[in-house]
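Example record used in the benchmark description.
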Amino acid sequence: MANPLRIVLCGKTPQIATAVKAGLQPECEVIHVILSTSAGVSDLPKLLAGQTPPTQDSDNIGTQNYSQAPQAVVLGGGYDDEAVKTIRKACESVSTGEKGVPWLRPDSSIPVPPLGPKYGAAMVSRVKTALRELEEEGRAKGDGVYFF
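Model output (structure tokens):
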């Protein structure tokens, strides 16, 4: 089996992030989970540069395998346009053009179940499909925002 795709997962609730992380395995390794815009601004630039985040938290539900930079950032529905813009701006110096990674966001026009286990399962399915399509279309490397 190929190595799992290393991703950073941005969510708002640890419970849903834990379920999404489990559902993405074995295809993806969630190396770090970000639970707020401010954590995204402080941690994500370091992670994308292949460094350990400045706020190491032993309770982080990611694998904390920081030996290599993540290959994608997956954002949950709790991050609106302004939050995504703020986090991406903080990452500009380390994640643009060819050295960037795909950023995946939920397409709010697609209906989802209410928050809970079914919501997490729906997100997992959509993320896996989006990542597979990016790979097949040759867009799995380089900066870009893609809706799933």
